[in-house]
Amino acid sequence: MLLLTVALGCVVLYLLYALFNIRPNNFPPGPPCLPIIGSFPFVPSTYLHFHMEKWAKRYGPVVGLMLGKQPVIIVCKPKQVLEVLQRDEFQARPENANFRLDTFNRKLGVFFSDGAFWVEQRRFTLRHLRDFGFGKSKMESLICDEIEDVVRELRDCHEFQVSRYFGLSSVNVIWALLAGSRFSRDDARLQALLDSLMRLFRSGSQTGSIVNVIPVLKLIAPRITGHSEQVEHITKLQTFFRGVIQEHRETYSENNLRDFIDVYLQEMKAQSNNQHSTFSEEGLIVTCFDLFGAGAESISNLLSFSLLYSILYPQVQHKVQHLLDSVVGRDRRPCLQDRPRLQYVEAVLAEVMRLNTVAPVAPAHRVTEDTTLAGYNIPKDTTMIASLWCLLSNEEHWGDPQNFRPERFLDDEGNFVKDDWMISFGTGRRTCLGEVMARNLLFLFYTTLLQQFTFTIPHGHKKPATLCLPGITTAPQPFRATVTPRFLP
Q1: Are 227 and 218 in contact (CB under 8 A)?
Q2: How far apart are CA 379 and CA 372, in angstroms?
Q3: 432 among annotated binding-site residues
Q4: Which of 23, 114, 332, 345 is the most buried (most CB within 10 A)?
């Protein structure tokens, strides 16, 4: 009887395996595949980019997974990563519960949409953000306003918590273009929103949660899977954006378009009779979510990392300060026009972004047609997850990628040299929409802060760690810095 039970159990497991986890023909090799859940137990929820390096050594440049019934390709060698990011058939976004949770279960916004919808929304968003100053002198003025607030605040403190400190400043720049306003530094409501956003980024995973593999779990075990907490944070942010949009509706005037939300509402009205329109209130909410999230999380973390390496490498900090004193002086703030004469600063910031890129793993892509990669068959609708880290840390290319060495970006005459493998913001059609703003904000904040202050490790504190916190994007581990004004205002 026992043997019969065991035999029946084996048959059931085999049938489940065959039914739910059939690997496509000529699919790339990869971790084991179990019934129903596939390779999910063998996929790490944190530091995926480090694990991808191990997979590359074991399986090759492309690794095949089955997350439930969903085929997933992990791309972990430079040649194949660049191919995936640039070929047209790899440019869509995945269709699953995790990637649709914050977009009302539809393709909305500029981040998780694709196809003709994405093209129209991205063009509209970029065009009108530029009209309101995105990438122009107005944006520089907005950034400088935020910098002045930070400088005044830091002059009144001896020591501060660096991690997450710049979230408000980063948000205010993009929010002025989106909604025509800025938040005060002690705004409790905004701090709560930033906290929700941070929790989303820190708890998320590039491969998604178990809910993607077994969707019914979000109904029967929402708290255990973390689904309910995720919904709570997303709902809080969506409710905030909906309220701001309603405020704009109540004060909207076609003769006085104040910001991006106003022009989006105008476009919604103009296309109200078009049943194929891509413009809707929910679409505007998601677009605000996309841009708000990028500013609050990625840019602020880059700023924190730039101060982290200034503290860890005081000789670099002093060299930057000496250069600023020589080029800019102390009677005015640095500006974007100073960039050509601050080549070493560009090298320092490039090295910060190389070691701690915005996202070590690119946002997931989806295949739009049957194709091939590295000699393997890639079926339509396969999810593609590509490592940016494999380019930024490649030993053959960089020589000593583990070391912080800004000079690697300078030629013999001290001029900044752009490297084609520096794809911190992605490459191809899906390059980050906010790259220009991020680079400008990082440059202006970093140069002004180092012109005005010297940052050191507080007495009695250990040296800050460089290993980033786990999550969808990189973030520094909490650390504090002592602030010493370099001269009287």
Answers
A1: yes
A2: 8
A3: yes
A4: 345
